Amino acid sequence: MDIKYFTLIMLAQFLTACATTIDRRILLPDEFELHSVAYDIEAPTWMIPDSVYNKKIGDYSVIDADTSFRRSKDKLISSDVKENLISFFVFGDKDLYNKVEEFEVVSTKDFSFIIKNDRSNLSRSQCKITSISIDERTEALITTKDNDERDFPNFSANDSANNRFARTSTALSCEIKQDEKVYNLNLFSNENRKVNVALSSDIEEIIIENIDQYIVLEINADYNDKNTDSDDLYYPRRYAINSGLGLYMNAEQVSALSFVGKPRVWFKDNLPEDKKQLFLTVNYSLLMFNWLDSAWR
After folding, report:
1. What is the pLDDT of residues 109-136, one digit of tens each?
2. What pTM was computed for the model?
3. Distance of CA 195 to the CA centre of its chain
């Protein structure tokens, strides 16, 4: 066997034995994590049919999930004709130009679902996603001796609706109905991914804050030092904007949602049943939003 291949195999085995990443999740306060229950939610592999979003989560069921097609409207915001420098330098062709147009693309998509528990209590969520992106489209033109322009069979455009770098803003608005109460969930993310989230009703307001830190769950097979902080060994900290969200009521954390790793939600112990179902509806609205339009993050 070639010595370099043997070395690579041995190195790979050594690295695998040292540490294996098994999952990721947001970093939570120890007190909240100690006195809360967590639920893992399986992310759908495919986006269709809508039934892939129907889930069983503990004593709750997500039913009647429904999504619409994405609808988009284009608005021309700039247009220019530029020399095709590649053609000029490579082929010496002075008659080939690029027509570059920029469009503002406004896209919308609706989704809804119902959450019920074993006692047949229902929560309904009806949501709309609105995103704004900048789409640059390039069309090759040939300029003739008479200065007339004719199309050259070449055109390129970006799928800006699903392009994170083309996205300038994203908004989510949901109306959540639970018994006779109506809650409004609103999220706005700008081009820098700065997020504002609010959940409100006529009688109360729940604070939702962004969580950027997450931890990597690792297994270290060679760990023998009992004096080492296990958190530093098994759970190294990482940072990524919009890793998850925390929900607070009366200045106390009552729930949390992790977008990174396996989708996971937490609920503080001994929450009233109606609040637990409400927070699950809020979290699942945010999860479906993330599955249907991940470019917001």
Report:
1. 999 999 998 776 789 999 999 999 988 8
2. 0.78
3. 12
